[in-house]
Amino acid sequence: MNVASVIGSVFAVVFCLGLLALAGVIVWFGVVGAVRRKGRLGRLHRPELAAIESKWGVKLPASVEAYFGSPAVDRGDFYLAPPGTSQAEWWYVAQFLPLTRRDLSDWISITNVPGIPIALDADKGAYYLPFEKLRKHLPPPVLLRLPGRKGEDRQVASSFEEFAAFEPRDAPPEE
Fold first, then answer.
1. What does the alpha-carbon distance between residue 77 and residue 126 come to, in Å, rounded to a whole number?
2. Which among 175, 171, 174 has a CA at the least distance from the CA of 75?
3. Domain assignments of the chain as residue spans, ordered by start
4. CA-derived radius of gyration, the chain
5. In 3D, which of 95, 137, 92, 143 has the Cα closest to residue 116?
6. 3-state secondary structure of 138
7. What is the model's pLDDT at position 33?
8. Measured by CB atoms within 10 angstroms of the end CB, which terminus of the chain is less buried, N or C?
């Protein structure tokens, strides 16, 4: 058996495994993901705080349940504006995430944030409450994990209560 034959065989095996992996991803996100997302809007207003606190050993702020029970989380594709700020200081929200064990298990692995993800922005960033503070029963800030390998975070609000006071604003018309 010559070297070219071995290299060709290895390439064929790797190529076939790559195709199988691609098919698996397509099935997972296209079929299984759609089934798991079904009913997302219904779960959005019924956060499972006790189940989340038990599974991840955290204590969530009481205001989270009230906020997720309100119409504020129904919105998508909008900005949250801290009171009295200019548009440059607004935070874009693509969608809020249901706070259930099932949904959070998926979103924690997808977003790879060190905390409880609560919303997404359009650039693959995730708003979250950090485990470090939640596990110490301290008021957590709301952070935005920026996309990319660095895992860079920006503080959005010093507490969830401050975040909940942000005003929803429609996206400004494009010029």
1. 14
2. 171
3. 1-38, 41-170
4. 20
5. 143
6. coil
7. 47
8. C
Residue range 24-45: average pLDDT? 62
Q: Minimal CA–CA distance to 64: which of 15, 103, 97?
A: 97
The alpha carbon dihedral of 89, 94, 96, 97 has a sign of negative
**91 compared with 38, residue with greater pLDDT:** 91
Distance CA 80, CA 91 (A): 5
Residues 6+ apart with CB under 8 A from 122: 77, 92, 94
Q: Greatest CA separation found in the chain?
A: 75
Residue 5 parent element (H or E): helix 3-27
Q: Of 70, 118, 128, 65, nearest to 96 (Cα)?
A: 118
Q: Is the pTM of this model over 0.85?
A: no
CATH class held by domain 41-170:
alpha beta
Residues 116-155 have pLDDT tens digits of 999 999 888 999 999 999 999 999 999 999 887 777 899 9
Which of 146, 147, 118 has the alpha carbon at shortest distance from 130? 118
